[in-house]
Amino acid sequence: MPTPREILDALLPNLKIAAGYAAKMQASIGARPDKVAADHNLFAEALTDADLSIQTFIEVTMLSLFPDIRFYGEEFEQTYNTKYFRSIELGPQDDYLVTLDPIDGTRFYMDGHPNYQIILTILNADSFEAVIALSPAFDRFYYSLRGQGTFLGSLADDLDSCQPLKIDTPKNQVILSWTMGHLADALRENFSVISVQPDYSREVAIPNTNGLLTGDLTGAILAAGKFIDGGALSWMAQEMGYVLTDHQGNELPALQDCENYQWPGVVVGSSPAVHQKLLDVLAQQ
To answer: At 140, which helix (H) or strand (E)?
Structure first.
């Protein structure tokens, strides 16, 4: 079994090609019929040709380079290659599962905003091993390796050229995921608040969860930490030095003990003090 670092090294050139494709096609890409989300979440329902094209491209890459590694892509139900992978499920310890969100922030992408990204993760039974998140519109990518920190580079860089990422003074701004808007008023005593459901705009881009890595957010409260996107970005923030727990302040469970490829509710704070303020608001609800 290749190491997580070896997997990232091998996939990075193709991920950069996918990033270039996403950037060049954004203005003209066609939206496909929306997926249907149970809570009518316009982010969960968004789907474009770019999602399926990038997923197919990375699936082909995976089957060529790592045909025996488990692989789960967000659009697994609609691609041609799912049936060729050994499994889309999380396996036993050290039998890695690679996951892909081909366009994280598809609604941002469809509306012409720049803060979409391509996120690939390497999961173990107990926790994340690695995450790489490419931001084509900003010509940069981030990656984290378990226990080694989070790194930032341009799309021209290889992994060795990236620099450790550390944000000393993030904006005093917190993001609330789609169903967490009821916390906004209480949080405004201490923070500027972005509540995704009421605050999303087709005209003006708001930070996404990736704002944890850009310094645009000092914290986040997510209803669930999906392994392919919000959970992955939250884990990257933890690798950078932020505090990450569930809504009660407990350590998040092993991935193998979760359902539907997601952690239960997630809280991220840039410092123990920020994190505690977020937990205090949650405890009052």
So the answer is: strand 140-145
Q: Please, what are the domains in the chain?
A: 4-164 (3.30.540.10), 173-284 (3.40.190.80)
Question: Residue type at 247?
Answer: H
168 annotated ligand-binding residue: no
The answer to whether 206 is annotated as binding is no
Query: Which tokens in the block code for residue 140?
Result: 């940069």
What digits encode the pLDDT tens for the residues 88-132? Answer: 999 999 999 999 999 998 888 989 999 999 999 999 999 999 999
Q: Where are the beta strands (DSSP E) in 50-148?
A: 70-73, 97-104, 117-123, 128-135, 140-145
45 labeled binding residue: no
Nearest alpha-carbon partner for 133 in 25, 271, 233, 251: 233
251 annotated as belonging to a binding site for a ligand: no
pLDDT tens column, 16-45: 999 999 999 998 886 555 554 444 444 444
Tell me: is residue 103 an annotated ligand-binding position.
Answer: yes
